[in-house]
């Protein structure tokens, strides 16, 4: 187990592979297993990338974060970690949900060091009431599999997935729910009271290869709000996937892998 001590936290991280660094930032409540679960399959036959998976403060194995009170301080902790692990190196960022919000915070200051960015169901509007989101819906169900679940399991899966089958539910349990179950909810609720950055985060133009993956049925952050920042990313592929909610990386795994692969191709083209 590896930890990096920063001013207001002791951040847990895992490094896999060697080469160009990619820093992976998960969303609010899960831990690094969410990012590891969806990103590692992309590198089974692809070398030259150093993947850095972290547990954000209040989540996973990270400790000593009690002095963090808001998203500004969350961001400072992540930036300190990056500067500690990757001094004077250029790197890529991948952010899921709240992690996508933090990625844009990092970009605002350090865009020259960032080679590319990918966003998985990114949080665009921090205030829930300000988001445009569809109603939670189920697109497809494997009723035979669902009949084997407890009432509690069925309720949880139905609230967080839009394609209910054994594969999706198994991955959701191991990659998402496992992290949520050990999160410090009291701490996360405290930070959510100051969830929005104190500065305007979406004013920068980022002209490196980027990727936005959005779920058509994402009832948590939606997909429409992302259109507002699309012009900030002239080199972005912008994809809205059907049969995909807020766990798009699981529900559309094959497309996810292909689109991530293509994004890395574009990054390599300009950095060879």
Description:
The radius of gyration is 18 Å and the shape is globular. An 8-stranded mixed beta sheet has the order 1-2-4-3-5-6-9-10, sandwiched between helices. A two-stranded parallel sheet has the order 7-8. The model has no long low-confidence stretch (mean pLDDT 97). With 272 residues, the chain is an alpha/beta fold. Helix 1 runs antiparallel to helix 6 (166-180). Strand 3, helix 1 (32-39) and strand 4 form a beta-alpha-beta unit. The longest helix has 19 residues, at 253-271. The chain has one domain: Rossmann fold (3-Layer(aba) Sandwich). The protein has 9 helices and 10 strands.
Any chance you could write out the topology, listing elements then pairs?
Layout: E1 2-6, E2 9-16, E3 20-25, H1 32-39, E4 49-54, H2 71-85, E5 91-96, H3 98-110, E6 114-120, E7 140-141, H4 143-146, H5 151-160, E8 163-164, H6 166-180, H7 185-192, E9 210-215, E10 236-241, H8 248-251, H9 253-271
Helix pairs in contact: 1-6
Instruction: List SSEs in N-to-C order.
Output: EEEHEHEHEEHHEHHEEHH
User: Globular, elongated, flat, extended or rod-shaped: what is the shape?
Assistant: globular
- Rg measurement, Å: 18 Å
Query: Structural class of the secondary structure composition?
Result: alpha/beta
Taken together, the total number of domains comes to 1
Distance between the termini: 33 Å
| Strand order in the sheet with the most strands | 1-2-4-3-5-6-9-10
CATH first level = Alpha Beta
- Total helices: the number is 9
CATH superfamily: Alpha/Beta hydrolase fold, catalytic domain
Helix content: 25-40%
Mean pLDDT: 97
> In the CATH classification, which architecture applies?
3-Layer(aba) Sandwich
